[in-house]
Design a protein that fits this description.
The longest helix has 18 residues, at about 245-260. The radius of gyration is 18 Å and the shape is globular. Strands 1, 2, 3, 4, 5, 6, 7 and 8 form an eight-stranded mixed beta sheet that branches. The chain has a single domain (about 25-280), classed as 2-enoyl-CoA Hydratase, Chain A, domain 1. It has 13 helices and eight strands. A hairpin with a 2-residue loop joins strand 2 (about 65-75) and strand 3. By secondary structure, the protein is of the alpha/beta class.
C-alpha cells in the first residue's frame, strides 16, 4: 500500500487485493462517475444500523437529493448525511442526479443542529456534480443556503468526519465537507467545477476535458499532497463498483479509527481542531511555490 493511503493501513477484505484502480486523472473521473459506484444510500445501509431518515427543511419541502438521519455505528448514535444520486434512471431524476436545491442544504442544517444539541458525531458522504444551478434554486437562495451550511459546520462542537465517495463538485460538495477529518476514496475527485466546465472556460473547448483533469489536480492523491484532504481510502482493484463489500469493510475500519481520535476530546477542543485544520489549508502548496 502506497504512502498516499491512510496513515495506518486499513483492514482488507479476505481474499481481496486493494490496489490502484486507475493511473490517470481522466480515468479516475470516469470511475468516480461510474453508474454502478456505491452511493450514500448503499453505504449507509452497509455500515450503519437502525437508520432513521429525517425529511424536510421545516420551511418549504423535502429535497431527496440529500439523505440524512440518525443511525447507530457499532452501537454509537451518530448523525449521517450525504448526497443521494440514485441507482435507477427514475430515482436519479427524482433526486436531480445528486444536485441539491437550497431546501436540501437547509434540511442538512436542521439535521446537524439536532446532532449538535444531542452531542452526536456527524458523518457525511459527498458525491455530487455540484449544487443545482437552475433559476428556481437561485431564486430560493442557493448561495446563501450553501454558505450557511458551511458556516454551521465550521462552528460545530461535535466530531465531523467527511468522506468524498465519488464526485466532489464545487460549493455543492464543500457544503458537506467541512470536517475535522476529510477522507477521500482512491478514485473519487474533488474540484471547484467539472473538467468539462474548466475546459470550456479556460480553452473554450469542452472536448479538452481530459487535459483539464490533469491540470486541475482533482484526484485524491493530488489533494492529499496539497493538504486539502487528510487521507486516501483505497478501493478494490477496478474501482469500488467491482467489489462494494470490500470497500465497506475498509470504510468501516477507517470510520472507527477516525471517530476514536475524538472520543476523549472536549467539545471546545474539537471545534478548535477543525478551525486550525482549515486555517492551515494551503500551507503545503505555499511551501512548494504553487500558491
Amino acid at each position: 500500500m502506497s504512502a498516499d493511503t491512510l496513515d495506518s493501513a486499513p483492514v482488507e477484505a479476505p481474499g481481496t487485493e486493494l490496489a490502484v484502480s486507475a493511473s490517470g486523472a481522466a480515468e479516475r473521473v470516469a470511475l468516480a462517475r461510474h453508474p454502478g459506484r456505491p452511493g450514500t444510500a448503499e453505504i449507509v445501509g452497509a455500515l450503519f444500523t437502525d437508520f432513521f431518515e429525517q425529511k424536510g427543511d421545516r420551511a418549504s419541502c423535502d429535497d431527496p437529493s440529500i439523505l440524512g438521519g440518525i443511525a447507530l455505528f457499532h452501537g454509537t448514535p451518530v448523525t449521517v448525511l450525504g448526497h443521494r444520486k440514485g441507482s435507477s434512471i427514475e430515482e436519479r431524476m427524482r433526486t436531480n442526479f445528486g444536485m441539491p436545491s437550497p431546501e436540501g442544504y437547509r434540511k442538512a442544517q436542521r439535521i446537524m443542529r439536532a446532532a449538535e444539541k444531542f452531542g452526536r458525531p456527524i458523518i457525511t458522504f459527498v458525491d455530487t456534480p455540484g449544487a443545482y444551478p437552475g433559476l428556481e434554486a437561485e431564486e430560493h437562495g442557493q448561495g446563501e443556503a450553501i454558505a450557511r451550511t458551511i458556516e454551521l459546520m465550521s462552528a460545530l462542537t461535535v466530531p465531523t468526519i467527511c468522506v468524498i465517495t465519488g464526485e466532489g463538485g464545487s460549493g455543492g460538495a464543500l457544503a458537506l465537507a467541512v470536517g475535522n477529518r476529510v477522507l477521500m476514496l482512491e478514485n473519487a475527485v474533488y474540484s471547484v467545477l467539472s473538467p468539462e466546465g474548466f475546459a470550456s472556460i479556460l480553452w473554450k473547448d469542452a472536448s479538452r476535458s481530459s487535459e483539464a483533469c490533469e491540470v486541475m489536480k482533482l484526484t485524491a492523491q493530488d489533494l492529499k499532497e496539497l493538504g486539502v484532504i487528510d487521507a486516501v481510502v483505497p478501493e478494490p482493484a477496478g474501482g469500488a463498483h467491482e467489489n462494494p463489500e470490500a470497500l465497506y469493510q475498509v470504510l468501516d475500519t477507517c470510520l472507527t479509527r477516525e471517530l476514536a481520535r475524538f472520543a476523549k476530546m472536549s467539545r471546545t477542543a474539537i471545534a478548535q481542531d477543525r478551525y486550525t485544520k482549515f486555517r492551515a489549508m494551503g500551507a503545503s502548496a505555499v511551501k512548494r511555490g504553487r500558491a
